[in-house]
Each structure stands twice: as structure tokens, then as C-alpha cells.
């Protein structure tokens, strides 16, 4: 197990990922964006990441974005008790109806069909 984990840490993807700052790219995005995070996401902490995403859009001048933290949802936007990765396999829900509704409504707004 330890060997496998250490190998993963030395993979090209992980070496790229660690110093990567998505804000640099997000500042250049000009199209409408919907950024969602589950409140119980333990892989991508919602408050810090959503704040950074919003800051990047503002800095880059993009005014067409929506940022939302969704209560009681995990990284996969499933209703969760703890948000723990070990919980994923025990949750029958593929994706929260609330998340699906928010995504659908946002798409309709962007396409002018709402």
C-alpha cells in the first residue's frame, strides 16, 4: 500500500497537479460558468475553492458566472452524511436531485429558454 501511494505521488500527473494554479487559467475564461461544490466535499474544500474561483473570475473580468456551495452534498454531488470517500459506495443516489435541478435551471437560463 505504501509503495503504491508513493508511486502515485511521483506520477507525472501528480507532479503537474501539485504546483498547478487553476486561477491563472480561470482568469482567462470569458464564457458563462457554473461552479458547484458540495458542502461535505472532503476532496475539494468548498469554501476555499469557490472563493478562489470567484476571485479569479472577478479579476479576469468575467461577470457571467454562478458559484454555489450545495448543502449536504459530497464531491460527487450526492446527498451524504459525512462526505468521506469511503461513503461513496454506500450511497445509492447517483446525483442529488437538487444539484440536477440547479444545473438544468442554469443551462436553461444561459440558453434563453427559461
Automatic annotation (TrEMBL):
This is Peptidase S9 prolyl oligopeptidase catalytic domain-containing protein. GO terms for molecular function: carboxylic ester hydrolase activity. InterPro entries: AB_hydrolase_Est10, AB_hydrolase_fold.
Amino acid at each position: 500500500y505504501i509503495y503504491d501511494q508513493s508511486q502515485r505521488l511521483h506520477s507525472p500527473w501528480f507532479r503537474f497537479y501539485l504546483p498547478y494554479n487553476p486561477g491563472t487559467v480561470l482568469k482567462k475564461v470569458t464564457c458563462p460558468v457554473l461552479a458547484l461544490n458540495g458542502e461535505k466535499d472532503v476532496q475539494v474544500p468548498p469554501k476555499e475553492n469557490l472563493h478562489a474561483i470567484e476571485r479569479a473570475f472577478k479579476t479576469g473580468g468575467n461577470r457571467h458566472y454562478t458559484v454555489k456551495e450545495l448543502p449536504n452534498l459530497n464531491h460527487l454531488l450526492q446527498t451524504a452524511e459525512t462526505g468521506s470517500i469511503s461513503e461513496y459506495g454506500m450511497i445509492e443516489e447517483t446525483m442529488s436531485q437538487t444539484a440536477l435541478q440547479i444545473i438544468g435551471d442554469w443551462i436553461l437560463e444561459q440558453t434563453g429558454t427559461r
